[in-house]
């Protein structure tokens, strides 16, 4: 192998590798679909021209048919009138019209065949374009999925690096410790306040229950003269002031007893 051939091969190999890196399959497929769709109007124009030629030949053939019929009628009329000279002239025109009709008929057959073939080719192209477009869309979806998987793989590789993993673990432990300490402080503060409030509510309830018990005993005359509350705690049912004074004395006695 010569030196120039080797250089050419190296250059082509390098160029191909560079193009493979630059070339985006998704963009290439999208451009291919656009190119195929752009050719449809051109095909439609070509088919329209072929069909226009067919219709023009069809009109010419119909006109020649009418011309032949008219000339035949004129020839017969001229013969009846004894005008052989005019009949001879019409015969010449009739022969030319018949030749033109035959030639136009042959052209019309070719044009009709060409029109059918053009329509069939256009329909086949449209079907093929739709099929290729569907395949291209599937390939584009696969390319997007592959791209996402590549990005995910790169992300996972970044998280698998030892330094980054240890950093995340250290930061997680610090944050967990701070959260645990904050929750403990909050729980302690709430517990102390709740306990104090519960104690106060429980003490108030005990006082109310004890007062109510003494009130029932006083009304029933169960508090004797030798009790710690004294005879003055016997309350008459019709004296509200005495009831109030008795309750104040009871609260005072209970406070001294607790102290």
Summarize the structure.
The protein is an all-alpha fold and 259 residues long.
Largest sheet: none
Low-confidence stretches: 226-246, 255-259
Helix content range of the residues, please?
over 70%
Strand content: under 5%
Rough outline: elongated
- What is the CATH fold-level name of the largest domain? Helix Hairpins
Distance between the termini: 117 Å
CATH architectural group of the largest domain: Orthogonal Bundle
Describe the structure.
The chain is mainly α and 259 residues long. It has 2 domains: 3-160, Orthogonal Bundle (Helix Hairpins), CATH 1.10.287; 178-258. The chain has helices at residues 3-22, 25-80, 84-159, 162-219, 240-258. The N and C termini lie far apart (117 Å).
